[in-house]
Every structure is written in structure tokens, then in C-alpha cells.
Specification:
By secondary structure, the protein is mainly β. The chain has no helices and 14 strands. The termini are far apart.
Amino acid sequence: MGAFPGPPRSGRQSSPNRTRTAEFDDKKVVGVTGAVSLVHTAGHGCVILGDHAVRCWGENDYGQLGQPGRKHQAEALPVPGLSDVVELSLAPTFSCARTNGGKILCWGDNWYGQLGDGTRTERREPREVAGISDAVGIAAGGEHACAPTRRGDVYCWGYNRFRAFGGAPMVWERARKIELGPR
């Protein structure tokens, strides 16, 4: 993976960048102009641009860049089908975005249902997470993701490892409301 950028030097997940290129560990990512937010994981990174479009680069084994094929990309390429994006969250093999309107879209590996589209089929283009239209955040990690909503509910989907979402089943292909409360 030597040609691909590592995490930002500062160790921060997100930082403004108004220069022609984003800089990582002495390497520059071509194709980034006007970035307002940056998210990076071990193998790939994405930025939100000033026009709320998204560009991603790095490993693409599972389609986590939103690009066809499995070719890794050193240049940040646009993720087709995304607009009005205000937040990104990345896991090593999949990516998720939240729109200004509260929708969540995910793409990439889906072995454990972590895209929340009701299947376990890998997707190389963003797919809307069914049942969520008022998200105020998004958090992807490992093989699962969760999103809080305006109503104060939290929805999760993907691999329910160690019963992190509570109860069965182990794989949630669709977002489900998590019951929060005292032990």
C-alpha cells in the first residue's frame, strides 16, 4: 500500500483544507480542491467539498470508494450519486454518508449487512439505508454502523458482534432501533 496516504499527521479525523491538494505523510492527494471535511481510515479516505459532493481515494477492494472495479486510486475521485452530504464515516471496507436532509447512504463491503440495504450484497455505489430519514449523525466501525435521529432514537445495522446492539440476531441487514436505558 506504499503509494497510498496514511492518516493525517495531526491524528484528527476532520480538518478544513482550502488548498489545491490534501497532504498526508508527505504525499499529496490529487483531485481535492475546496475540501471542508476529511475522514480517513486505514486504507482509504474521503473528503466533503464545499458543494457537498464527496471524493474518495485509496483501497477499493470492496467498492468502498464508490467506484466500479477493484482498482485502488491515488487520485480522489467523485462518488457518483451523492449530493448534499454533510457528514462521512468510514470503516476499513465500507463508507457511509449523511445528507443535510437526514438520509444515510452506504457503499462497499456488505458481508454482515453493514450497508443497511436489506441485503448482504457488496455495493460499489451508495445505497440508502432503509428506514432512516431524520439522522443527525453517522458512525461506522468494523462491520456495523449506527445513526442517531432527531427524535432521539439510535438505529444500528450490520454485525451485532458481542451483542453490542443487544439481543439476537448476529447480523442485521436493516437498521433497527436500539433500546436504550438503564441496566
